Amino acid sequence: MIHRLLTWAKAGTSQAFGQGMVRHPLPYSFSRHIRLTSRHQQKLSYDHEDFHRYTQGRFIEDEATAMLFRYLSFNVDELMSAAASAVHSRSCIAIEKCPDGMHNKTFLLKMDDGKEVIARLPNPNAGIAHYTTASEVATMEFMRTLSIPVPKVYTWCSQADQTAVAAEYIIMEKAPGVLLDTLWPKMDLEARFAVVESLLKFCSAWADFKHEGYGSIYFEKDLPPSAARLPFAHQGRDFALGTIVGRSWCDDGRDTVALDRGPWSTLDAYLGALGHRELRCIAEVSRLPKSRSCICGPGLYQPTRQKKTKAAHLYLKLFRALIPTDRDLTQPTAWHHDLHVENIFVDPDDPTVITSIIDWQSTEVIPLMVHARRPYILDHDGPEAVGMEEPRLPDNVDELSLEERKAASALLFNQALTVAYKRWVEAKYPILWKAFKYRESENHALLGLGSALFVEGEGFYLARIVELIQSGEIPFGMTVAELGISEDDITKIKADGEASLRGMELMDEMRAALGPIFPDKGWVRFEHYDEAKAVLSHLKEQLIDLYATTPADRAEWNKSWPFDYGGHAQRQAAWSLLDLRGQAYNARYHAQ
Question: With the C-alpha atoms ordered 53, 54, 56, 57, is the resulting torsion angle positive or negative?
Fold first, then answer.
């Protein structure tokens, strides 16, 4: 069935073009490698500012803070020395900065004897000091025990104050093969499906391993003596579940707040901790994050701590009614959270063979129903294929222009691969299929929203919960009155729900209209910065003219607009937050 679908889709793309398959252009590469080399073997001295700062683009949203959190001070010479020592080379003769990630600095280091290694250093925004690096290393080793291809770690340090490098680091094997990113656009459907099939085998291995709790993976010896842990041994290695280091536990100032960070031996304890995390962050973080999915301001939805607090309390009262009874869905599972073409290496001679998977930072052991999603390599522009139906070209394909036929053919190509993937999962991996289907449910959506209320979603969440309780669609076991929600409250909640939906629609319209210059996660390429700033400034003025009725409204719109540069005040706030992060780490680590 899968083979027939892939063969049929290839024929469809040939029909659209007249011959051959769709060839997608290689993604635009905006990275530039910063390289320092020497033909000599004497000790070199490197002091290149670009090694320390973020060089991959610009930030539209609060750039002062974004750049500060991605600036990393470290001793380059000592890093080179540590790398050479790790692989028993006499000296490191060259260091090359790889494209910046959002949370790390990565370097390729070359030795006098021809060896090459990768050094990975976490930025200040990467997560909790010590724990983030210690967990990443242990997770990679754990994945090796499951026969997942990951780079070998040669040496590492998670205590910046105990190394001459003056920063945490991991020295690891240079991943064999080439990035899938360089070959994926050229691969036909069968080859792409072979890669996806390999990824599914890895996903199945993750789902098959039965963890006994929720948290993040460590070598037991790397946890402070009195730290909470759930030990487990596997293939002769002493691992433990310990403090969770997922992004949602660290981003937006959450890492500065004293929280129950696990590990947890029960699902109820884990899901409850999510609600208490949001509640505490709403109360304690000095500045509420701006929504990334909803335009907010007078005349639309306006978030407040009071509304967020109400929503978080509601989550804590009702989350148990949303938990599925199928234990396969709630089993604790480790999972790679970012399976895209830049984290997967393949054999250049046979790109269907995966040679390495990188970027295990912030891996969590949490319920399968939360983790399981299709690999990001299957995401594509345009509408999704409906259900399991074979996608087809439009009936009027012969009437379309050449460019329209190309677009239709490309969409068919991507839809066919997605449908083949879904059919294969349903036939071969029933537990994964159940998890994927559960992710389409309202229960899953409400659990997800409830665990992100500090950042966004409380307006829609409150309105939808009230609607479901009143309709009896989900048996929560409590009425709105029993939850302390008055008729007056219901009227306001429903109005907020409608306003937040409109704000989400506006953000979606803005994203579609701006296309490649839209600042996803607040970021744009260098060449798009000026245009993005100008367009967003114009859009802001249009929205202010449309919704603001008083000078106070205009001031509030300017304050809440998410796409603004920031300045001295934001930089001072960023320094304060970095200080708080350091204080939080010292209190957490040394208390244990």
Answer: negative
